[in-house]
Amino acid sequence: MTRKAFFTLHRDLPREGPGDRADVAWAVALCDLPTGARICDAGCGPGADIPALLFRAPGSRVTGIDLHAPFVADATARFAREPRVEVTQGRLIAGADGLPDPVSLGPFDLIWCAGAIYFEGIAAALRQWRDALAPGGHVAFSEPVLLTDRPSDPVRAMWDVEYPQITDAQGIAAQVAAAGYETLATRVLPDSSWEGYYGPMERRIADLRPGADPELARVLDEGAEEARIWRQYRHEFGYLLSVVRPA
């Protein structure tokens, strides 16, 4: 898969993974954020969750970070008239290129990371983010999770390609504990969170089909198959949203 074909599919989608406003509301309610809280949306994509973060944490300021420059541009344009939002190109954790990361931009009362922590690994990210948290700060992140001990062959084959490290809820909790955090609560994202991601993607796939070159057609096929597998086997895997804090 080429990056060009991948981002042709994903360009202008409202969000880059499962999630919705109810997920944000649930997580923020657990964090008891102070008035004027500083929030980091780590791996913000085009900024889908920022409005819900602002709404659920009145008076807060949100710093969005994403490595993909077009997403940063989209989110910056979207919130150009919102003084409480700043979006910058950066990394989830510090890298050799010196791009900003949550530690360099913090401290934050909440680091929100929807479906992106797996790029660095749960334990590695949480260890670095400890230094990005204000006293009493929390991290809320969603992570792919197996919901059965015996996933069907199509499910196992998909995740063997997409994310071989996928584990169950106990495996996620163990990684949180290994990083020196405690888990306050978890929530498996509901079907509505997935439909908010796959519905727009499927409509974009249909729009891009006519005239797609072979590389783009392959990416479209992969996206359509991913959505089909979720609809058929959604009782076997999902995303687990965890709210954690340093122990």
Structure overview:
- The chain is an alpha/beta fold and 247 residues long.
- The protein has a single domain (15-149, 164-193, 236-246), classed as Vaccinia Virus protein VP39 (Rossmann fold, 3-Layer(aba) Sandwich).
- The chain is 43% helix and 22% strand.
- It has 10 helices and 7 strands.
- The protein has a 7-stranded mixed sheet with strand order 3-2-1-4-5-7-6, sandwiched between helices.
- Strand 2, helix 4 and strand 3 (85-89) form a beta-alpha-beta unit.
- Helix 1 (3-10) crosses helix 10, helix 2 (21-31) crosses helix 3 and helix 9 (191-208) runs antiparallel to helix 10.
- The protein is globular and about 50 Å long.
- The termini are far apart.
- The mean pLDDT is 94.
Keywords, separated by commas or semicolons:
single chain, 247 residues, alpha/beta, Rossmann fold, 10 helices, 7 strands, 43% helix
